[in-house]
Structure formats: C-alpha cells, structure tokens
Amino acid sequence: MTNPFNRTTLWVVIGVAVISLVVAIVLTVLGPAQKFSAASDGYSVSAIGHKGLVTLLAKLDVPVVLSRNNSSAKAQHGLLIIAEPNITAKETERLKALIASAPANVLVVLPKWYGFTNGDGRWIDDAELKDLPEVEQVLAAIGLEDGNLLARAAPSMQWLAEDLPQPKLRASVQTIASRAVTPAISDRERALLGHYEHEGKTIWILTDPDVINNAGLSHPENAQLAVALIDRLRDGGPVVFDETVHGHAQTPSLLHVLFEFPLVLATMQVMICALLVVWAAMVRFGPKRAPPPPLAPGKDFLIANTAALLRYGGHDAAALERYLGATIQVVRHALHAPDSLGPAATIAWLERVRVSRGSKLSLPELQNTVAAARDPQRVLEVADHVYRWRMEMTHGTANRS
Length: 401
What we know:
By secondary structure, the protein is α/β, with parallel strands linked by helices. It contains 13 helices and twelve strands. It is elongated, with a radius of gyration of 43 Å.
C-alpha cells in the first residue's frame, strides 16, 4: 500500500500534534495566568485584600464568581457582594448603578485602608486608614446620608449578635450609628453589621472590612462569621464579588473569552487544524497521484459512453422504444408465451397474465407513454416504468392480495 504522506509531511504533522499535546498538558497543570492585586479587591493576596475569602468559599463548595461585568444579573439568584468600593467619581457612579439594579440580596462592605505596595505589586509594605469623610461618600452613594455616621474606636469586649459568631477585631473598629440601619451585630450603641431598606430592597452593610479581609480571616472567629453571614444571605445561590468598583471592569467579548484559559486550548487546536487545511490546499499533500488511463476498462464505461452518444445525437426516444421492445421479448420468454402469437396477440396474452398477477402497470398504457416521451428527463422516468413492469411480470408484485 502506498504511503499517503511523504516523510517530511509526516514528521511535521506528528511534531505539531506532539507540541499541541504538550502545551495543553502544561497549561492544564500550571493553570491559567493569575490576576494579582495588592488592593482591597477579590484578586488581592495582601493583608487588605479578599482573595482569602474567595478561596475559602470555593473550598466549601460555595459557587463564587469574581465579576467584571453584569454583576447584578449574575447575582439574581444569589448574593451580590460589593466589598470596599473605590472612592472615585467613576467608581461611585458604578456603585450607584449597582445598588439600583441589585437583586434582593446585597452585602456592602465599607472601605477602610490605603495600602502601599512593594516591588512585586502583590503585597503591601504598609497601610493607612482612610479619612472618614471619604468613606462616608460610599454611604451617600448607597442611600445613607444621615451625616457623621461613622466612627472608629476600640473594639467591644462583647458584641450583641443575632445568631452569628462573635467577631474578633483590633483597634480602630469602624462602626455606624444610623436610625435607618437595623443592627445585626452591635456594641449596643453602634452597628458593625446591619441592614436597611433602600428603593424597595434590603441592603446589608458591614462597616469594618477587617472581619473578612485576608488579615482578619487569620482569626477563626472572623472566618466563621463571614461564612455564616454569606451562607444566610445567598440562600443557596452563587456569591458574586463585583470587581467593577475596583477598576477591573471589562466589556464582555467572545474573542477575549476564546483566548482565555481553558478555552484557549480548544482555540489553539482549531487554529492548528485550519493551518493544516490551508497548507494542504496550497501545496501537494502526499505522493503524486497517477493519472487515469485515457479509456477506462469495463462495461460501465462502455454503457456510459454509449448513453452519452445517444443523448448527444438526440436518440433518447428511439432508444426508449427499443428498450421497451427488448423488455417485452424478455418477459415473453420468461413467462413461456406461445411462439405462434403475433405482436397484438402477445400483448393481449401478457395483459391477461398481468391481470391474474394483480400488476397495475398496463402494457398498452406503457406503450403510449413510451411513444409520447421526448424530453430526456421524461425518457429516464418512463424507462424506470418499463423496468418496474418487467420486474412485476417476472417476479410478481407486493400489491397482490
């Protein structure tokens, strides 16, 4: 058997397949390129970030999403967490739009810290408290505008909590005093966690992010509180961390998704296959095929050539008449019709046999149809009727009762 590939082509195809397989395995093992941050967002592994909470929820089999667009829609059947939004005009407007379109379950975590990153951009060397008036801009954006709401003080020795674990916090605990907020965790005067009504929906607010940030989760009490609170609010649905308020907004793009892990593996495979197809179409692929002989052997070629000549000469109708005459003689001999019968008597004799066998194709009607056929397409159709008449006369019909 001739090898369909020459040696060079075979080695190229094998090499491409092996490289593609190795790249797929390496990317699968190493995982996707991680997005890192040192700020107060879900990508941050620094002390003030929230990567720890995202990882903790994922390990507890809680569906968790870091959302860079359409966060409210993604959280329709779960919990939307807006954790420490940036205090800029653009992000504040995003925050207002999020609150307006948010689902029933929303948790807002107020900002507290500025972080100063080191050289690698993943950790912080130092952190400073944000000014309270800056944080109160977030309160105004989410519908709490009482004025002088926030304060920072030493932590309470005993928090009043509604069926939630006790938090453990260091100095400068950030709390709120507002008639609009119903406390869930408080020190009897000021709330650390509470909820309020805004535009027909209930919004939960956690005033101090040290309960859920990476540094705070080092205390088991805070981790228990964070998980218990989120599990209560999500009501079995997913947890969506909005990252648009941290400057990570991204317009949905199918092209961008196709080149992100893991879909980039399938995209690479398709591109490689497309390149091979283009290569095969542009150059000879495999050994040169031998040209066919000028005249093909066998009966099929002879029959096809004869039919083409008859059609070219316009003898379709004449060939059909001869075909019918030859078919009548074949059927006559197959049924042992008497040799003394003339043409008319033969047709009458065959008609009597047809009627007795229950065939529906009448020979006189078939002769008239053959005589009237002139169009090449019609000639082919009538020839098929002649063949069916022969089969029914010699082998019977399935329509016999």
